[in-house]
């Protein structure tokens, strides 16, 4: 670390890289022009490289140009980290792990309510579709979609969604609004590809008493969010989960088709390592989360 100069000298170099003269750099730093020149010369001696080509204007040498972004990034990260630490003073961080689609569509819109109720809790959202392993992650708690079989974890039921077809008003205007569920067979159907805990179109059609092996499928999508986005764009009808289309149903950008009860066989669960559920900030988060879940469950019937 013998080549590491004083922070003030590094700051002088960082400022000088953004100016064309010692005079303008000195003005930003509130020091004299000679002080800027002296500090930069000292830095060149410490590092053993020439940083500037001196003339009527300052120009970085190739060595200076290589070092400038590193020094600039150092100060940027330092300032950001210090600001974050000051913001966190008196607050406790809670790392919540859940799936990306659930975080985006259900949890994220509700977090301002948690912040108003418990401003001392600083939530960090982490998303993955993989099984949670608290031994290999920094996450404190998680929200998982499944059947509640988490024997090594503290587990609490949150809510269960309903599944139903949704379409954009533009698509219904183009194709007409179906009067009977069987009419959906003539519509482009959007499907999420791959293995999924949520049933697909063939299961929904069996539920209404229609067995069919021929579906007018449109594109298959890799995740739930892409499927919903395609429905919003009028590309077809999606079989949606109620918790993922709350906003779209409310603002009319998607229309629910048919009031056919179809509860999802899988549900959402709050999970965490056994024992930490009694920590004060986790108790507050759990109570808030379960209250929001109960309210959502009532609206999904």
TrEMBL record:
Pfam family for this entry, one: HTH_1
Family: Belongs to the LysR transcriptional regulatory family.
Statement: the UniProt record of this protein carries the keyword DNA damage: no
Positions of the HTH lysR-type domain: 5-61
PANTHER family, per the entry: GLYCINE CLEAVAGE SYSTEM TRANSCRIPTIONAL ACTIVATOR, HTH-TYPE TRANSCRIPTIONAL REGULATOR
Stored InterPro entries: LysR-type_TF_proteobact-type, LysR_HTH_N, LysR_subst-bd, WH-like_DNA-bd_sf, WH_DNA-bd_sf
A molecular-function term among this protein's GO annotations: DNA-binding transcription factor activity
Annotated protein name in UniProt: Glycine cleavage system transcriptional activator
Entry keyword set: DNA-binding, Transcription, Transcription regulation
Biological processes annotated in GO: DNA-templated transcription
